[in-house]
Amino acid sequence: MNWTTTIENFKTYLTLEKSLSKNSIDAYINDITKLTTFFKEQGRTVTPVEVVLQDLKDFVTWINDAGTSPRTQARVISGIKAYFKYLLLEEIIDRNPTALLEAPKIGRKLPHTLTVDEIDVLVKAVDTNKAEGQRNRAILETLYSCGLRVSELIDLRVSNLHFRMGFIKIHGKGNKERLIPIGKRAKKEIKLYLKNYRGKLNIDKESEDILFLNRRGRKLSRVMIFTIIKNLSKKVGLTKNVSPHTFRHSFASHLVEGGADLRAVQEMLGHESILTTEIYTHLDRDYLKETIKNCHPRSKDQ
């Protein structure tokens, strides 16, 4: 079995059996491509069946020497491990060369968040005199109100808005559905957008049920959402690195700070493991420590 065939079969496996999104599948394939590139640059003809642990250790050294961060190294190794587990499952190999392969130790990176005031400033900075202004306000409010991933936002459908019930339905990672409560302000901005912008577009047939559209009546790209937020951030002079995910992190951390049950936050974010959600309790602890430092008489500088 050669690399091309096994990679294509692995891609099919991830699509059909694991139901992963295109972005997740592309990430896995890119990880394996890095390994095949390593063998080519080393002038080594090695098939997937012939790979041994030392080959993989040499590969890790190679990507480390190339300046790859520990976090990225860990992700690449995770992708390669998934590939060889698949080969073992399909009985293409009879032993897993990644079994003893260690990923670099990485610290837990706390995500950037915005304050409520900063979010308000960004929303108010949207120029509603422009045709797309109301759409952009609705996008920001939806991201913050519901804690969506950018992929979930651009795939959000009109038919999945259940405003009377106060929920929206999301198709998340692995095509798993979840219901998320939506706030009054987000509902208001979406309704204005539907009436004043979307309702006046000549909508492309393939995008008829997609909520957020560009001026050509087509689905927005991920890059467009990043661009909207980056431009607004620059306009108001925010020095933080702001992205669509910053709104998701802010949604979660503000809920935890307000005393929300962690299981409820996990459900709304669509996290498979509570351990992923627990990162927001660390944010909350930092907030508490900062509060003590600034407000308690014994914590102030003498």
Task: Provide structural commentary.
There is one protein chain. The chain is mostly helical and 302 residues long. It has two domains: 3-89, Tyrosine recombinase, N-terminal domain (DNA polymerase, domain 1), CATH 1.10.150; 116-292, Intergrase catalytic core (hpI Integrase, Chain A, Orthogonal Bundle), CATH 1.10.443. Helix content is 55%, strand content 4%. A three-stranded antiparallel sheet has the order 1-2-3, with no helix packed on it. Strand 2 and strand 3 form a beta hairpin. Helix 1 (3-16) packs antiparallel against helix 2 (22-41). The longest helix has 20 residues, at 22-41.
The CATH first-level class of the largest domain comes to Mainly Alpha
Instruction: List how many beta strands DSSP finds.
Output: 3
- Uncertain segments: none
Strand fraction = under 5%
Strand order of the largest sheet: 1-2-3
Count helical runs.
Answer: 13
| Secondary-structure element order, N to C | HHHHHHHEEEHHHHHH
The CATH topology of the largest domain comes to hpI Integrase, Chain A
Number of individual domains: 2
